[in-house]
Design goal:
The complex is a heterodimer of chains A (95) and B (296). Chain A has 95 residues and is of the alpha+beta class. Chain B is α+β, with helices and mostly antiparallel strands. Chain B has 2 domains: 137 residues, no CATH class; 145 residues, Phosphoenolpyruvate Carboxykinase, domain 3, CATH 3.90.228.20. In chain B, 20% of the residues lie in helices and 44% in strands. Chain B has 6 helices and 20 strands. In chain B, strand 1 and strand 2 form a beta hairpin. In chain B, helix 4 crosses helix 5. Classes of the chains: A alpha+beta (95), B alpha+beta (296).
């Protein structure tokens, strides 16, 4: 579960490369056999990634997505929760 | 001999035998890469003796020993080679599974310096400093620390243009190289290439794998990420997709954020200079004219 009042950080074991309006995320690993996929973030994901500054809560980011993109509050909440769920599962973000 | 130089991807690598009585013997695949040049980009001091890792070194990256048997990847051992960090130095301790003489070896990399060491635990004192897998490890760190790209793929030069076909195992890299070879094109390499960016141009180079091969280089015009299809067709890729597609086929050690940053930076720079496209192809000679006429 994602708590809306939680502040998440970018994992220090991820290298992010800005490709314009998207990001490529590469995990650090200690075994060649564990090298997993490289992840990409679309423009919405990149917008959220840029706000993972160690100060904003999930709710803060939901509000900013709603203001930035042409979506209603429920859509913004669903999109942001989906992003955080995936990022947390792949250890790309940490509390 | 006690000293020789190899020219690989426009790097001159000087090997110097340092231990008493040592004799260096390059493999047949490397012989045609020997250069008479006295200038060098990197000197490798080669010693014989036991391999010892100081306790201060910390292991940061490991590779199991995997063999491909009848098309299947089989893990033979958990310990093949291990990368250690000691201050700014990178140490790699490895077994030499393809050698009867080399019991194990240590590659000492000093980033930013022109002199590295190889210590080989040899029973005879007659050593190839590039025993498998030392050669690949040395070339990987040499290129990675110089913002080059070390990649699996088939590179061909066709009518003055260089094309790199890359993709996962079984996607047709060797097949498409063979088709271009049969059409009269030069195959730069059909397995492992080094890409270097110089003066806003991208060059691909072969590496010493095959006996009798010679030094080859071609300017790159396009990269195709390949797969089999029921017709010949290409698709453009965005920057992120291109980076992930190219990166998936690169030789890479993802234990260090700086190395990852250098590789992604080099790929990003390259794809601003050379178009990366997805190619689905039918494995016959028509793909040659299709690539000729493709926009890149």
């Amino acid at each position: 579960m994602i708590n809306l009042q939680t502040v998440y950080f970018r994992s220090p074991r991820i290298v992010a490369r800005d490709t314009g309006n998207e990001y490529v995320l590469v995990p650090v690993t200690d075994n060649i056999a564990d090298m997993k996929s490289v992840y990409t973030l679309n423009s919405t994901g990149a917008f959220i990634w840029n706000r993972l500054d160690g100060a904003r809560t999930v709710q803060d980011i939901v509000d900013e997505v709603e203001n930035e993109f042409d979506v209603d509050g429920k859509q913004a909440l669903d999109d942001v929760l989906s992003f955080f769920h995936d990022m947390k599962e792949y250890l790309i973000i940490v509390e | 001999m006690t000293s020789y130089s190899l020219k690989i991807a426009d790097y001159t690598i000087l090997f110097n035998g340092m231990s008493d009585g040592i004799s260096l013997r390059p493999s047949p695949a490397q012989e045609s890469f020997i250069t008479e040049s006295t200038d060098y980009d990197l000197a490798i001091n080669v010693f014989t003796g036991p391999v010892v890792i100081t306790e201060e070194a910390s292991a940061v990256f490991r590779a199991p020993y995997i063999e491909e048997i009848n098309g299947k990847r089989v893990k033979k051992s958990d310990e093949f080679w291990t990368v250690y960090r000691l201050g700014d130095y990178i140490l790699i301790r490895t077994s030499c599974p393809a050698s009867n003489d080399c019991r194990e070896a240590l590659l000492v990399i000093r980033p930013g310096e022109k002199s590295w060491d190889i210590i080989i635990d040899s029973s005879t004192g007659i050593v190839d400093p590039m025993y498998y897998p030392i050669e690949g490890l040395l070339l990987y760190y040499l290129t990675a620390l110089n913002d080059d790209i070390f990649i699996h793929g088939s590179g061909v030069r066709h009518k003055g243009k260089g094309y790199l076909f890359s993709g996962r195992s079984g996607m047709g890299k060797s097949t498409i190289a063979g088709i271009f070879r049969d059409s009269g094109s030069e195959v730069v390499h059909d397995d492992r290439l080094i890409l270097r960016i110089k003066n806003d141009k991208v060059y691909m180079y072969n590496t010493p794998v095959y006996e009798g091969d010679r030094y080859r280089k071609a300017e790159l015009s396009a990269i195709y990420i390949i797969g089999h299809g029921d017709r010949n067709i290409t698709f453009n890729t965005g920057y992120s997709e291109a980076i992930t597609a190219v990166m998936a086929n690169c030789i890479q050690h993802h234990w260090d954020t700086a190395l990852i940053g250098r590789l992604t930076g080099a790929i990003l720079k390259m794809i601003h200079l050379v178009k990366v496209k997805t190619l689905q192809f039918v494995p016959d000679s028509k793909v040659v004219s299709f690539i000729e006429n493709d926009e890149h």
